[in-house]
Amino acid sequence: MSVTRPHLALEVDGAGAHPAAGHAGPAGDIAALTARVTTAEAAGFALVTIADAALPPPGGPARIEAGVRASFLSRRTQRIGLAPTLHVTVTEPFHLATQLASLDHASLGRAGWVVGADHSAAVYATVGLPRLDGAALRQEIADGIDVARQLWDSWEDDAIIRDRVTSRFLDADRVHHVNFTGERFSVVGPLITPRPPQGQLVVLGADTLGVTGRLDVALVAAPTVDEVADRARQARADGAPLVVADLDVLLGADRLAALDAVAPWGPAQRLRHTGSAEDLRDLLDRLAGLVDGVRLHPAELHVDLPRLATGLGRRPVTGPTLRDTLGLHRPVNRFATAG
Length: 339
Hints:
Keywords: Flavoprotein, FMN, Monooxygenase, Oxidoreductase. By secondary structure, the protein is an alpha/beta fold. The chain is 35% helix and 18% strand. The chain has an 8-stranded parallel β-barrel, surrounded by 6 helices. A two-stranded antiparallel ribbon has the order 5-6. A two-stranded antiparallel sheet has the order 7-8. Helix 2 packs parallel to helix 10 and helix 4 crosses helix 6. It is globular, with a radius of gyration of 20 Å. The mean pLDDT is 92.
């Protein structure tokens, strides 16, 4: 009996998951990033994620913000999903929603959003706010996701009418104010961008954020398959439509000792595979009954990604939008339903 393969995602930021990767390959400029993403697209990956931090990496050069990198890639790719990490804790929700809606338009419906939640005191200091933690932080994240979703719905799908006879570009009755008030921000709306092609972008986030029911895809990072299975069951019970497991990958275990001699990898915080492509395929088959997808974190992107592209075989992308590819329905506009 054939096994339904899980969707494959790929993290493309940086040089790789192994701490010595930066010593062994290119640091990851925009040309290298473009090559990685086009390689993943040719191999049939469902999407790439682009990690980011609110502060520059210690001891390294500042990198281009993930949303900007995703926008650059949107016109250099055709099928693969693009999901940058944007931090709701230090980004004005109106600007965040606008940037992501614009990415969805630029990519013709292939955009996602990895919900970032940097919340150290140093990060909050960049926007002049006191640090949040615990329940207050969870509420801040929840409010950011809620207001983004409302803003994406603030234009109904048929708001733009382009009626030359009456010189009307849009129907103002189909553009809505959201009137959202949270603890640390308020938004009146509407968005300055028409509704995204997907209606709502695909929202991904860690199951540890405390907002699993507001996500489209819960990201699970655990070091054993049994723990992944338990966390996946809980994420679904909490309302996540899809669950994706994080997996470190190093193809060719003979490389591990040399990398560890430069900088030890340390204990696994998520699933880790060091070995052959065949054994990796077996692991993916095992995970297929437990999760809906797997996000790969190659140990060295410039080494492992080409091996993954050939070793896993080409995987078909099933739809023109990221929602189509992942099997997620296009949400009905809440304002159209209410009206």
